[in-house]
Request: fold
Amino acid sequence: MSQTLSHARPKPVSAVVSAVVTAATLLIAFGLLALGVESFWLAFVVGFGVVLPAAVGVVEYNQDSDTRNTTTDRESETESALATLRQRYARGELSEVEFERRLEQLLEAPSSPAERTRETAHWTEEQHGVSRVSDQ
Reply:
């Protein structure tokens, strides 16, 4: 149901695009009317029937495309980290218990960029043998 509600409310960029197209359509149509062009009404048909839906569709498609790309990037980062973890286990750098613990942490996938950065820094310090005082 939340997905239905999110599509019911226009996104800010879509609202701006639709306002600009609407203003341009009205300006052109009434400009043609003021100039005495008999078929001024075609500007309404073209503007609201073709240009407006196409413009909003392009904006929505591009925004959805950006969302899909972000998800794909996150998945490839996880796959890369998993491959590194497996290599370190295969070389004997990690015990089975440590491998399982890190695997669980990796598959939990931190939700925020700050959490991912903290995890990356922690792993880098462990790889280079840097010890630090616990954050707790």
